[in-house]
Amino acid sequence: MLRILSLILLSTLHISHSTLSAASGEPPPNIIVILADDQGWGDLSLHGNKNLLTPNLDRLANEGAQFTNFYVQPVCSPTRAELLTGRYYPRSGVYSTGAGGERIDADEQLISEVLRDAGYATGGFGKWHSGTQAPYHPNTRGFDEYYGFTSGHWGSYFDAILDHNGKMVTSTGYLPDALTTAAIEFIKKQHQAGRPSFTYLALPTPHSPMQTTDADWARFEGKTLTSLATHPEKEDHQHTRAALAMVENIDYNVGRILESIKKLDADKNTIVVYFTDNGPNGWRYNGGMRGKKGGTSEGGVRSPLFIRYPQAIESATTIETITGSIDLLSTLCDLADVEWEPKQPLDGISVAPALTQSDWQAPERLLYSYWSERVSARSQDYRLDYEGRLYHIPSDRVEKVDLSNKKPDLTAAMKAAVATWKEALLTPENINKERPLTVGYPGLATTQLPARDAKWSGNINRSAKWPNSSYLTDWVHNEDRVYFNADVGEAATYHVSILYTATKDAVGSKITLASGEASTSERIQKAHTPLEYGMKYDRVDRSQNGESYVKDFATLDIGKIELKEGATTLELSADFPSDDGELEFRMLMLEKR
């Protein structure tokens, strides 16, 4: 029986990693980490899905190492936090996927900072989902270059409004293609400068909205699906078709990445990593496993992991050792021969020796999956689910045969380990860590405070069930308020503007921002009533998922305000000229001048 009781504290202790040297005389390897959003383990032809073709991802797996027991967390921001920190996400301040709970504590050490300090050029492209304002923004977390969106998901994947190093810009075309193009240009630029690069390409698909190009959709529209969900009666075939069309686009862009480094003659000295952030975002083929996104069973947390590094990893390598997103930081630093000293104890270990040493023995340990008060634990051979049922995964990947009564000692030991883990990590301050939004911290000239992070009172509503790229609607009364609990990092004069819509009857409304006794105001001079857009490329009605479409908001400059350092409430109010006016609010922006 596993020595579970001796392993209970393993997840809370740092296991020092061995250092592997890159090939003698070679420059440091480039590192490319590609992360898909809401793609399941089963969304690959390599894994038996006959509904789609993923030749580039299959090739990536076959030319490097495949990890057959790799685990992430059940949802987006927790997995991203673990990739970035090498620590279980509750330790890093992450407790939700929005409204500030996705932010990684500012004192956490991120892989981008480790590699930057080791001389790497660092670029992040795509979905960040780890904080918007400094010091949580990617440009203040070790990334020299950032191009993407910091929210949990975005409202439009075509000609999208993005963040480029803290400034709002508009991309061209289909977003995954545009992000990949930007990543390739970054890699080329650093290669030409003779500098090793770390590229983090966090593609937003197949997360909703279920938007695809017409060319991708043409291959799936009306297609008969043959590889079906574990529970076929639950599957929405239209949603599956859209998701798989998006995955084939991911495959296309992975092929572009591989071809670009080949043309640079850099493919042998480049580490390419591919994985996903949780299980599939719908009931579809997933190898018969139980669960999907949000669940802590195999189907919710098992992810593909492919690592290709021709200079050090033999092709067709298979790693069966259990590994997790917490292991990637140490593993990549070892493969790149980066020497560093963790500032905080790590939960992950380096599994680089498994890739280069045939006689390496993995330590016995448990990997923990947690979301929504549910914790499951995975040993090398068993999973204890959140209800205390025990499954032998090598013979029962689909988790049908409960062995808890047949193996009471093992079950009890794993339950004890879970209890210890919960006691150590799921403290009240970790799982509901209320923190103010930060304003005026170093690293960004402009602080963006989007509607998703706002609080409000009165008649106001949110445009969608999920915060992310939503906006506030039904602002119609003088008593209505929009406010942000904030922490001002530097006392200064701030230039204030908002993104808004306004009906004709709202023209002349006086918009005021107040902070304590300080305030500034301006009146709306023009009506702005744009239509929602994005329907053209939607393959599934997004309202079924509680999502709204997007609009082009106007900008209103409100003036200047003196903000004092420290805690404050930023309060927006409107003085309407009539009872018939209506406003919508998208964002408050504060710029130090």
TrEMBL record:
Give start and end of each Sulfatase N-terminal domain: 29-338
Q: Which InterPro entries match?
A: Alkaline_phosphatase_core_sf, Sulfatase, Sulfatase_CS, Sulfatase_N
Signal peptide range: 1-22
Question: Metal-binding: present as a keyword of the record?
Answer: yes
Q: Which organism is it from?
A: Pelagicoccus mobilis
Gene3D superfamilies, per database record: Alkaline Phosphatase, subunit A, Galactose-binding domain-like
What's the domain of life for this entry? Bacteria
Q: Which GO terms describe its molecular function?
A: arylsulfatase activity; metal ion binding
Q: What is this protein called?
A: Arylsulfatase
Keyword list, A-Z: Calcium, Hydrolase, Metal-binding, Signal
Fetch the Pfam families from UniProt. Answer: Sulfatase (PF00884)
Q: Which family does it belong to?
A: Belongs to the sulfatase family.
Task: Enumerate the SUPFAM superfamilies for this protein.
Answer: Alkaline phosphatase-like
